[in-house]
Amino acid sequence: MEAEFWHQRWQSSRIGFHRQQVNPQLSRFWPQLPLLQQTEVLVPLCGKSRDMHWLVEQGHTVAGFELSPLAVQDFFTEAGLAPELEQSGHYRCWHAGRIWLYEGDFFQADSLARRFDAAYDRAALIALPEPMRVAYADLLARLLNPGATLLLITVDYAPIQQQSPPFAVSEADVRRLFEPHFTVERLGRIEEGPSNPGVASGERQFFDELCFVLHRK
Ligand SMILES: C[S@@+](CC[C@H](N)C(=O)[O-])C[C@H]1O[C@@H](n2cnc3c(N)ncnc32)[C@H](O)[C@@H]1O
């Protein structure tokens, strides 16, 4: 999507993707991953996700990337944190405690010449239309060191409509996008069933949240 699409979503508070609770597949599967506590976690397209606080509570530092200044501001305000600001290449980088949020376009992250050993994607890949997903997977491959771990959470649903996010990203899609650079294992699937309005109304046959662990080859 164009940057303007997301700026408008934040300006008009149309952020139905934001969750008050920590993602259940994150809290279930992250502790099983082969990661040191202090590992820095890359969180692309992070919004104001509370999952970042959970990662800090597990001992990690977090480097989030987010286009919207409103999202960044809300994230720190809602946590009662007063971040410091510095310019870091193309980004305004906001920092409080063990969290650094890079305000700007994630697709310029190469320019920072930074590499990571862990990453967490919830609702980032599925926010991007197909042509951008290929560029996103390639960028993650460049930003992650060999052996690095990525926990990836997507949604898959049918029938598919691809006009606006969240886009359906199936296990086959994840394998096609990432297997050139990563090993891919599916860890979990949560079937939303009738708790999903689309399923309840009969508009959708199913709506599932999928969780994968990927390791950079
Ligand atoms: C569907 S939301 C998911 C946010 C977060 N991961 C969560 O779980 O709540 C996608 C987010 O990506 C941001 N975004 C979209 N394109 C971006 C880009 N190129 N660079 C950085 N952030 C971007 C949007 O502003 C939005 O906050």
Characteristic key phrases:
about 220 residues, alpha/beta, Rossmann fold, 2 domains, 9-stranded mixed β-sheet, binds S-adenosylmethionine
Secondary-structure blueprint:
Blueprint: H1 3-11, H2 24-29, E1 40-43, H3 51-57, E2 61-66, H4 69-78, E3 84-88, E4 91-96, E5 99-103, E6 116-122, H5 130-143, E7 144-158, H6 171-178, E8 182-191, H7 197-200, E9 206-216
Parallel strand pairs: 1-2, 1-6, 2-5, 6-7
Antiparallel strand pairs: 3-4, 4-5, 7-9, 8-9
Structure commentary:
By secondary structure, the protein is an alpha/beta fold. It has 2 domains: 1-10 and 39-114, 3-Layer(aba) Sandwich (Rossmann fold); 126-217, 3-Layer(aba) Sandwich (Rossmann fold), CATH 3.40.50. Helix content is 27%, strand content 32%. The protein contains 7 helices and 9 strands. It has a 9-stranded mixed beta sheet with strand order 3-4-5-2-1-6-7-9-8. The longest helix is centred in the middle third of the chain and has 14 residues, at 130-143. The radius of gyration is 17 Å and the shape is globular. The mean pLDDT is 96. S-adenosylmethionine binds next to β2. It is an enzyme of class 2 (transferase). It catalyses: S-adenosyl-L-methionine + a thiopurine = S-adenosyl-L-homocysteine + a thiopurine S-methylether. It is found in: Cytoplasm.
Number of strands: 9
Distinct compounds present? S-adenosylmethionine
Identify the overall geometry.
globular
Strand content: 25-35%
> Could you list the spans in which at least 5 consecutive residues all have pLDDT below 50?
none
Q: Could you tell me the mean pLDDT?
A: 96
Strand and helix order: HHEHEHEEEEHEHEHE
Q: Number of helix segments?
A: 7
Give the helix level as a range of percent: 25-40%
Report on the biggest sheet: 9 strands, mixed
Q: How does CATH name the architecture of the largest domain?
A: 3-Layer(aba) Sandwich
Rg (C-alpha, Å): 17 Å
Q: What is the CATH fold-level name of the largest domain?
A: Rossmann fold
Major β-sheet strand ordering? 3-4-5-2-1-6-7-9-8
Structural class: alpha/beta
> Structurally, how many domains make up the residues?
2
CATH class term of the largest domain: Alpha Beta
Distance between the termini: 29 Å
CATH superfamily of the largest domain: Vaccinia Virus protein VP39
Binding site for S-adenosyl-L-methionine: 10, 45, 66, 122
Organism: Oceanisphaera sediminis
Subcellular location: Cytoplasm
Family: Belongs to the class I-like SAM-binding methyltransferase superfamily. TPMT family.
